[in-house]
Input
Amino acid sequence: MRILMVNVPFSGHVNPTLLLARKLVERGHSVSYILTNQWKEKIEETGAAFIPYHNAANYEIVFKNGKPRNFLCALKAWKYVYNTILKVGYKFDLLIYEFFSFTAFSAAQKLNIKTVRLFSTFAVSRENIGSILISKNKEINLLKNKFMLRVVTKLVCGKIPLVTPNILTEITDVSPDLNIVFTTKEFQKDSNSFNGKYHFVGPLIGIRVSDLIIPFDQMGKTIIYVSLGTLQNQNLAFYRKCMEAFKNKSGVSVVMSVGKNTDIAKLGNIPSNFYIYPFVPQLEVLQKSTLFITHGGMNSVNEGLFYGNALMVIPLDMDQFAVANRVAEMRIGVILEMDKVTSDLLCSQADDILADSEIMKNVKKMSDLLNLCDGGNKAVDLIEQIQSTAF
Output
């Protein structure tokens, strides 16, 4: 089968799809992936062929404090997705797009090719869109205003023939025959609002190669892992609070990933039980840790739970607030607000979580469930089945 994949250049949306590309290639399918040049190497590592955005191969969304520096520039991604599919899509049997690349559906309709939609976070419906659009991001909140929603839709799509009136309904109401969600039905918000077109396969957990050697053999019995993800990780004040909270705490070691743009030297004196790096192989650390202090990105939460970590979620933006709320609802961790975090609060909450038998029991149950999912193979099975059915 000749498969075309497409995405927008946001790490949280791309990363879980790369393992799917690899799985499809391993099954013998010919896979090509449309994205920007910054993703070329990672895409080709999966065995898929790389196709750059048409006339925009070097397009890049520049972030400042975790948000696009130029909002209007960021909106161009959806037009590039649409235009590139129109240029190359006729060569393929199937188009797979991540839900945030929603303009792909209109392009596929024009070319009369089948589509499969992926969700890197919660599946979205009219019933749960309100609870997912919980954000302090002013651009996201604009979408709650009907007039501004029309304006943004015009800016994003221009003359692209959407199926529905605006970009929100294009996501909530336009449903291909197959929608693959990279979480479980148990974790999905309002899972009963989704019909049989939606399949909750669980997370795709892959191996990430790293040359970094972390001295786990020198660490205490309890390892706490701290990471704020890839976009909003420049926060010296927060990292200093973590250091104050857990410095020289008996039996506790802390691995902290602070991002390539954080100057570790500016953190001051680092306690002997802290191991601080610009980047760590997250899956390797999560296999050793017990508590994960995270920003609440869906991929990070999935990975933390997969390896049996209780969660302290400090959401910063986008769907992280909805993910954090679900963590609290399921009693697999707690939520903290970044502007209310203190070193004393971090310390007391960590102690409470690790001593809470209900939380640790729920985490173990979720970990066992995720380890049984085999999301990658399930996703490929579903894709092969949909292609064999009539259009």
User: Anything to note?
Assistant: The CA atoms of residues 34 and 51 lie 5 Å apart. The mean pLDDT is 89.
